[in-house]
Automatic annotation (TrEMBL):
It holds the Pfam family Cu_amine_oxidN3. GO terms for biological process: amine metabolic process. Its EC number is 1.4.3.-. Topaquinone (TPQ) is generated by copper-dependent autoxidation of a specific tyrosyl residue. Residues 132-179 form the Copper amine oxidase N3-terminal domain. The keyword Membrane does not apply. Its cofactor is Cu cation. PANTHER family: AMINE OXIDASE, COPPER AMINE OXIDASE. GO terms for molecular function: copper ion binding; primary methylamine oxidase activity; quinone binding. This is Amine oxidase. Belongs to the copper/topaquinone oxidase family. Keywords: Copper, Metal-binding, Oxidoreductase, TPQ.
Length: 202
């Protein structure tokens, strides 16, 4: 067998990530749903152990067929590895839901070579009562909200700071610090606290 370029346990390539994201986004029911998707994590969905053994036995040097389990009466081998899969954690801002998707990367070709990208959704599941890590866009939004807050602007002005471009607001997600979400009224609305740190650059 000829050695392959991607081992089943190799991290996803940039092209594979693009295919996975495009596949999930295209699966959105409406344009609003698709536009509200934020991709928190896109990683390899690790294959079964027998796929890894098959790769090491026939596709990657030093080629070790002895790694394959011997099953009496079973000799069939298709001659190719199954498609790689991606696992995506997606946050939908419109519905405030987290979902986990598995996408089969059926075909991944470089577009500049005249190829095409295609993936297939294997499964999707909404995970209730959880929140994703904060993303870069949310951190930027936090800074903008704080700088537009009149009491904050007034506090900066009292300190002689009128050019807020000299101020950096560093929002830090400090975890859950409110007992309200544990009550019956708030049990499905967990709250995240933010610790605001300001830096002034002259």
């Amino acid at each position: 067998m000829r050695a392959q370029s991607s081992h089943p346990l190799d991290p996803l390539s940039a092209a594979e990530i693009s295919v996975a994201v495009a596949t999930v986004r295209a699966a959105g029911s409406t344009p609003e749903v698709r536009d509200s998707m934020r991709f928190i994590e896109v990683i390899l969905s690790e294959p079964e152990k027998h796929v890894v053994a098959l790769a090491d036995a026939y596709f990657f040097p030093p080629f070790q067929p002895s790694l394959l389990p011997r099953t009496k009466g079973v000799t069939g081998f298709s001659g190719k590895l199954p498609p790689r899969c991606a696992r995506l954690i997606v946050y939908n801002r419109k519905s405030n839901e987290i979902s986990i998707w598995i996408v089969e990367l059926s075909e991944v070709h470089v577009a500049t070579r005249g190829g095409h990208h295609r993936g297939k959704v294997i499964s999707s599941q909404v995970v209730p009562d959880v929140q994703p890590p904060m993303g870069a866009v949310e951190y930027a939004e936090c800074e903008a909200v704080v700088k537009d807050f009149p009491p904050f602007r007034e506090a900066m002005k009292k300190r002689g700071i009128e050019d807020l471009d000299l101020v950096m607001v560093d929002p830090l997600c400090a975890g859950y610090h409110s007992n309200l979400w544990k009550t019956s009224t708030y049990e499905r609305v967990p709250k995240r606290s933010l610790l605001r740190i300001c830096r002034v650059y002259n």
